[in-house]
C-alpha cells in the first residue's frame, strides 16, 4: 500500500496539479520527514501500548487521511503537502509495531495463549513458551508479506489508473472540481479508493486481533488469580 501510494502520488499526481519539480520535491521531503517522525514515535509507543490497539489506530488514521487529505483536499499544493506529512507519519509507523507483536512470543504470554487454546497438549507445547525462534519467524513472515506488496504494487497501480481511460464516467459524482478525486480528470479516483479501503480492511483485522487478544489476556489472568 505504501509503495502504491508513493508511486502514483509522486510520479503522476503532482504533475497533474501543474506543480514543478522543485515543489514536488518539497512534498517528497515532507513525506520522508514524516516517516522518520512516525517510525520513532511508533517505536516508542509500541513499548507502552498494546500493539493491536496501536496498529488499529495507525491503520484507521491512515485510511481517514487517504480519503480526506488525498481524496478531498489534495486539489492544490496545501492539500498535497498536508497529505504528504500525514501519510509519512502514519503509514510509515506500521513496521515499527512489529516488535510489539513479536515480543510476547518469547514470554509467558505465549504459554498462556497455548494453554488456553490447547490445554490438553500443554505439556508437549511448553517448550514453545520461550522459544526466540518464533519471533524471528514472525519477522520473516512480515517482511515477506511486505515484499509481496512491493512486487505487485506497480501492476496494481497501473491497472487502476488505466481503468479510468477505459470508462467515460467516474464512480463519484462531483458538483465541483475542487477535490483530490478530480485531479487529472479523475484518473486517480480508483487508486485513492483502493488505498483507503486497503487500510480500512487492515484496520478491521487489527480490531478483531485486539478483541481476541483482550479475551485471551482476561482468560489467562483469571486462571492465574484462581490458582493463587
TrEMBL record:
It comes from the Eukaryota. The chain crosses the membrane at residues 52-73, 79-101, 191-212. Keywords: Membrane, Transmembrane, Transmembrane helix. InterPro entries: MFS_trans_sf. This is MFS general substrate transporter. The gene is Bdn1-939P26.
